[in-house]
Amino acid sequence: MFKRIMLVLTALLLMVSAASAAPTDEVKKAVDQVVSIVADKEMKKNEVKRRQALKKTISTIFDYSEMAKRSLGKHWNARSAAEKTHFSELFATLLENSYASKIEAYNNEKIIYIKEFMDDDEHAVVKSKVVTAARDEFTLDYHLFKQKGKWMVYDVVIEGVSLVSNYRSQFNKTITSNGYDSLLKKLQSKNEELKAP
């Protein structure tokens, strides 16, 4: 009986620790998978397959809906549920296509995880830096929040510049000057231009 109780307790502890992995562990796991895909010689022969594998891995750690919401800022609440879904899809495609090519240019840069900060039980920042072969360095900070027990990225700050804030500023300018439909057209046009291989 005692053995059975200990087994159940151990299993529960393992489940809890697995469900609440540290933010740095979540980021590192996704980044390691991305690096593995980019370095895979077989994947290099098939751009479509490689791009699909990258998108799938990135979507396990990036919350595109939350990023879309934050990027649209004060204009988000005025949108209908269908508009929010449509915008989130356009935004996800923009991010995937914009950054996949940058990721694919990875050339054995060293990624160093410096530290993580917990703002509270639901929000964290993972600070890292990337060191190039020429020993150039740049900072890369991941802002995460906990969603259904899993840490998800909602913003990336590169050399002090927030990706979400940058988009929010651009999107607000477009909407204020030319309206929401103009922003949608711009995003669709950009996505066509950046179309995946």
What are the main properties of this structure?
single chain, 197 residues, alpha+beta, Nuclear Transport Factor 2, Chain: A, 5-stranded antiparallel sheet
Supply the number of structural domains: 1
Largest sheet: 5 strands, antiparallel
Radius of gyration: 19 Å
Strand percent estimate: 15-25%
Total strands: the figure is 5
Enumerate the spans where pLDDT stays under 50 for 5 or more consecutive residues.
1-19
**Class in CATH?**
Alpha Beta
Mean pLDDT, to the nearest integer, reads: 86
Shape: globular
Which fold name corresponds to the CATH topology? Answer: Nuclear Transport Factor 2, Chain: A
Alpha carbon gap, first and last residue: 59 Å
Q: What is the H-and-E element order?
A: HHHHHHEEEEEHH
CATH superfamily descriptor: Tgt2/MlaC
What can you see in these coordinates?
Helix content is 58%, strand content 20%. The chain is of the alpha+beta class and 197 residues long. It has one domain (2-193): Nuclear Transport Factor 2, Chain: A (Roll), CATH 3.10.450. The protein has a 5-stranded antiparallel β-sheet. The longest helix has 24 residues, at 81-104. Mean pLDDT is 86; it is low at 1-19.
Short description:
With 197 residues, the chain is an alpha+beta fold. Helix content is 58%, strand content 20%. The N and C termini lie far apart (59 Å).
